[in-house]
Amino acid sequence: MNDIMHLILHSSIVAKTVLLILLVLSVICWGIILEKIRLFSKVGKETNNFFRLFRKNTKWVDRFMLSRELRHSPIARIFRKYTHEIHANLENSVDILAQPTNFEKNITHKNRVSLKPMFDLAIEEEITILERWLVFLATTVSVSPFLGLLGTVWGIMTAFMSMGIKGSAEIAAVGPGIAEALITTIAGLAVAIPALVAYNIFVNKLRSIEKEVTNFFTNLLLTIEKEKML
User: Fold this and answer.
1) Quick one: which of 74, 177, 202, 203 has the fewest CB in 10 Å?
2) What does pTM read for this prediction?
3) Residue 152 pLDDT more than 90?
4) DSSP the chain
5) pLDDT per residue over 86-129, tens digit each?
């Protein structure tokens, strides 16, 4: 470890600059990764709570009040938006809080069709919120190996220059440059690999959430339709 630190401290300005940039990228990426882990954990817990309590409560108003307590669940937030938009578009302007038992009965086919664009936009907005900063991870995945490669090329070039100046191909002449090249290569991969793994995990999670939200509201509206037909 001491040898590595000594090599880094005595490396060229280009290698130091590359390593510093990679260090900054790594710190930011790990901050994003930890924050996303915390966020998705809250989303999962609140969504599970919403599903569990949603099935227990049959009245729309009770479900609506429940959704107001869950700030991180995309399904709960979209349910609130959907409820507000339906209420605003009801012809007889039924107040969900004042007349909760009549709210479901006043949801017409016209309401559902006219609010479909709003529903799609709400899903898109929720996914956009959850995927915030993921583009930085993707960029880091693409950039870090090339930064490492830059340091690698510079280190090899330094090694050959040293070889030419000293007129020798001994390890003492080319060793420092080769070692410098390897350090920047390893650093680039060390930054890119965790970012790549985290990015793929989070993207798959977002796809799962989007599918979950779409299925939930599709089934909810089908249930309402069936109940109105009984």
Assistant:
1) 203
2) 0.81
3) no
4) -HHHHHHHHTS-HHHHHHHHHHHHHHHHHHHHHHHHHHHHHHHHHHHHHHHHHHHH--SHHHHHHHHHT-SS-HHHHHHHHHHHHHHHH-TT---TTTSHHHHGGG--HHHHHHTHHHHHHHHHHHHHHHTTTHHHHHHHHHHHHHHHHHHHHHHHHHHHHHHHHHT--SHHHHHHHHHHHHHHHHHHHHHHHHHHHHHHHHHHHHHHHHHHHHHHHHHHHHHHHHHHH-
5) 766 655 554 555 554 455 555 655 555 566 777 788 888 889 99
Instruction: Pick the closest to residue 36 from 189, 203, 190 (CA basis).
Output: 203
Chain-centre distance for alpha carbon 1? 35
Phi-psi region of 90 (alpha: psi -120 to 50; beta: other; left: phi over 0): beta
Task: Give backbone dihedrals phi and psi of 73, rounded to 5 degrees, phi first.
Answer: -80, 120
Structure tokens belonging to residue 83: 């409820």
Residue in 230, 14, 29, 23 with CA at minimum distance from that of residue 139: 29
